Each structure stands twice: as structure tokens, then as C-alpha cells.
Amino acid sequence: MKLTLAFVVIGVVLTGILCAESRPAVSDEALETALKDRRYLTRQLKCALGEGPCDPVGRRLKTYAPLVLRGTCPKCSPQEVRQIQQVLSHIQRNYPKEWSKMLKQYAGQ
């Protein structure tokens, strides 16, 4: 269950970036830059949790979070799945409160 939830959180954070049908793949370097930007991640997590405003990335995150939590990632490539796993791991380590809230909020949908 935790692994499935991890996929959901990663998908939520990066859905707008990684799984967008009309967007190019995100480089590992761009992903690393996004993960190091605490302000950006905090903004996306607040959106996903319904605690703040959403930009287009945040809106996609909220849309796909329930799907990813169920273990699905529509049209994600193996690279995207690997990147999603990387993001989930980052959130678990660096944002434990938000991780816990996201698991509670999205696990039941």
C-alpha cells in the first residue's frame, strides 16, 4: 500500500511535468532542480492538499493523484515512472508531514 501511495504522490507532484501528453519529457537535471526548490515544492504540495492556490502543474497533480495512488500512471514511460519514484522518495524524506496528509487524503479516493 505504501508503494502504491508513493506512486500517487510522485504522480501528483510531477503529473503536470512528466505525464502531460503534449509536453516533452523532463530531463533528470530539470527534475533535480525542481526537487531542490523548496518554495516550488511547498506550493505544489499545498495545492495538492487543498491548502493553497493551484497553478496548472498543481491542478494536474490534484487530478492525477487518486489515479497514481491506485498504482496507475496514464501514458507514463519507464523514465517517467523512475522519476516519479525519485520524487516520492524525496517527499517522504523531506516533507514527512505533507506526505502523511497526502496519503490520508488520496488513499481513499
UniProtKB/TrEMBL annotation:
Pfam family for this entry, one: OS-D
Keyword annotations of the record: Signal
Signal peptide: 1-19
Record keyword Nucleus present: no
Keyword Signal: yes
Protein name: Chemosensory protein 12
Species assigned in the record: Nezara viridula
